[in-house]
Amino acid sequence: MNAIDPVMGAKAEVKQNLEVADNQVTVGSCFTDAPKMTMRNVNVFYDDKQAIHNVSVDIAKNEVIAMIGPSGCGKSTFLRSLNRMNDTVESCRVEGEICMDGENLYAPKLDVVELRARVGMVFQKPNPFPKSIYDNVAYGPKIHGLADTRVDLDEIVEDSLRKASLWEEVKERLHQSGTGLSGGQQQRLCIARAIAVSPEVILMDEPCSALDPIATAKIEELIEELSQNFTIAIVTHSMQQAARVSHRTAYFHLGRLIEVNPTEQVFTMPEHELTEAYITGRFG
Amino acid sequence: MTKPVNTPVNNLEKIRKSLGRRNRSEHLFRWYGRLAILIGLAAVTVLFTDIVSKGHGAFRISYMQLEVEYDQDLIGVDNLTDPEQLILGNWQAVPKQALRQQFPDVSGRSDKRKLYGLVSNGSGFDLKDRLLANPLLLGTRETVWILADDDIDTYYKSWLDGEPYAARLSDKQVQWISELHDQGKIRLQFNSNLFTRGDSREPEQAGIRGAVMGSLFTLLLTLMLSFPIGVAAAIYLEEFAPKNGWTDFIEVNINNLAAVPSIIFGLLGLAIFINFFHVPRSVPIVGGLVLTLMTLPTIIITSRAAIKSVPPSIREAALGMGASKYQMVLHHVLPLALPGMLTGAIIGMAQALGESAPLLMIGMVAFIVDIPGGFSDPATVLPVQIFLWADSPERAFIEKTSAAIMVLLSFLIVMNTSAVWLRKRLERRW
Amino acid sequence: MDKMTFENHYMKQFDEELEEIRTRLMEMGGKVEQQLQNAIRAIGEADSKLAEEVIKEEQLVDNMEVDIDEACILIIARRQPAASDLRLVMMVTKAVNDLERIGDEAKKIANHALILADESGSSKGYTEVRHLGQSVISMLSNALDAFARFDVDAAMRTIEEDKQIDQEYKTALRELATYMMEDPRSISRVINILWVVRSLERIGDHAKNLCEQIVFVVKGKDIRHQK
């Protein structure tokens, strides 16, 4: 029993680790051979406060990468900088390089409208438009002019709803309000809406945090299916969810990317003490 | 271990002790609220009862039945299509002759003048209109109901109510009226003139049509100007303007403008629109412009509140789909904020409808008989009309004033009800 | 990451539960160790009473296995352990299995001790039993020590000990074969001893498994079936 630290000792050790984290180098396998998105030395600031410190990581094509970490660790901020949703926050400033297929997303000539058609987003709270189910899904194709005829549009809507496993449940009431659906159905509607413009990457910001376990399971199943056609980055508070759906898991701590590794490794044998402490539910 | 301050048992005792006091104060508070509402209701009831009791009489007016002859020689007209003859015709001779026939024993100038005073001095023109509508009547006789003079009307109504007011009548006139009454030749009819005529110095001929039309044109212009400008300003300030000192400064000033006394806007309108831009006085254009200035802050403030109440998740959803900011506003924010904006606009319009002070400054207080037909015709508005009538010495204007107030109030009620209805109708949950 | 702590969870109860399965596993190990010692002593001293006691107490070891397994399932169901916690719980479920098998083998040895004591013949082969027995007991006790301290080095050394035990087992087999050839009348007796020796060798294997689990808990590496 001597080898096990007394409680105080362990706390001191964890504290030491936090200080080490100030010039932390991410451990694990951050980079891949065929990346869809590459992030290099990304720093994000809110006014003078730095929310993300020097994050470098790749997202592979057709991969599901989960971002986990304690509240306020910057995982959502990081996710939102991937499709420049942070642009809407005036005080927010992003430094470093975020590329998709080698193209810098923060280049001045890049139109953010085009970017968001290529990088879709699903939010924490299901937020369908207060319009009909059909109009919700058809909205993206309409504003981007993706459908030439009404028939094309119908086809896109049906296809998207099928891909989001919602078609069977709503095909009889396409013209009823999207807000009349249950929470889980609303979230799948939001996913259908996102995939209706055929994005290359889908960002999900805690998509199940407002849902019950069964609705959550359906979304997770959906993520699994979607990963065949899309690259998915998901932020989640539920470690079990990360373990269930993702191929790789990235652990953020106080704005720093601590570890990126294959999910099975992170949940059985994490490389870094902080990851270990977080996923086993210890002080860290 | 020290003795715990709170054990379940003594906690329960303390809670029970405080319960009585808490319930009492809640009870008391409820009664304060009920009292406040009661006082408010009482005030409204007193106001309405007062206005209705004074004004209901104005909706009926006295008419006399006389047998008239459209005598060509008497009038001096033989061709109804000749405008000059129509203007020069002695139309008032027709009712006068009819009165003489009704009371053949009246003689002497003074008595005759009193006799002629029984009917409205505009009754000849009413008969002219009747004749023009039916030219075949020329040269024939018929029995018609002719509008009585305002003093006769006042006396007849008060006499019917059992409290005769005869201060402005001679004994002979009183006697004639009672004779007519006995023969069933004087009666009260619905006062359609009130709604079809413009202002007049003669109370029995005065109507609110001119003021209503003036109000309508003024408000239409106000709405057309203030709603788009107000909504555009609100959208820009909420969605597009950078959040810095300037927008704060603008916001403070808009809030201040909403509290500026309306007479100041009247002065501003006088100085800028009339003296500088030389817009004519007394016309709905200038009234509409002044009221626009006055309503704008209200509309901007309510519209901003409506825009703010649109949940940010909807904006995020739209932006996340790749909608541009303009599309986000047009497709999502505006439809959701519209009920609130409309409510604000209607309330602003209701405010403008009841406004008189700024219009006094720009000359819309003038006495205008003709019913305005457009934005550039001289006009007055309902509240100003009420002000004018309340100022008039004739006793018959008292009930007219109240009647006009009733009309104004019913417009306001209709507008406010439609605001509530629109809100309910358009409001959707998200 | 060589130091293992199973404390500092946000939920104090989780700390306690993990500590409890550890303690109970150690208790079970102690019990099994004692059973083994007693069984070997029962052979050497022809003590049938001691042998019967071992047989009787095997039930206790079985009960401990069931209890600890249940506790582990409860932890998995309620806490969803991850990483080192998960490895510990998985290790414990496997370790109780190994310890229970060691208990079984001790019981078998005690059974043979009873038969040997009844026959009360020559004490040929007892030396081999004692010798191998001591090695196995020492190995088991080393394994349990290594578990108590999560000491990977000790565990690795203990794994090496198994090779020596295999060697000693083969030697003992040859010796016993010689006895049987020398004196065919002793065959049935020597076969009993053969079973005992066989059991001891199996116990060595289980102790080795235990050590491999310790390495898995600490290092997160599975070193089973590796050359």
Give structural notes.
The complex is a heterotrimer of chains A (284), B (430) and C (227). Chain A has 284 residues and is an alpha/beta fold. Chain A has one domain (26-279): P-loop containing nucleotide triphosphate hydrolases (Rossmann fold). Chain A contains 11 helices and 11 strands. Chain A has helices at residues 7-20, 75-81, 112-118, 133-144, 150-163, 167-170, 183-195, 213-226, 239-245, 263-268, 273-279; strands at 27-28, 35-46, 49-60, 64-68, 92-100, 103-104, 119-122, 201-205, 231-235, 248-253, 256-262. In chain A, a hairpin with a 2-residue loop joins strand 10 (248-253) and strand 11. With 430 residues, chain B is mainly alpha-helical. Chain B folds into 2 domains: 60-190, no CATH class; 209-426, MetI-like fold. Chain B has helices at 8-55, 72-75, 83-88, 93-102, 109-116, 123-133, 150-160, 171-182, 193-196, 209-240, 245-259, 262-276, 284-308, 312-320, 325-353, 357-361, 382-391, 396-426; strands at 60-69, 141-147, 186-190. The longest helix of chain B is centred in the first third of the chain and has 48 residues, at 8-55. The mean pLDDT of chain B is 88. The model of chain C has no long low-confidence stretch (mean pLDDT 88). Chains in contact: A-B, A-C. The A-C interface holds A 1-5, 7, 10-11, 14, 239-240, 243, 266-270, 273, 275-277, 279-283 and C 1, 3-11, 14, 79-87, 148-151, 220-221.
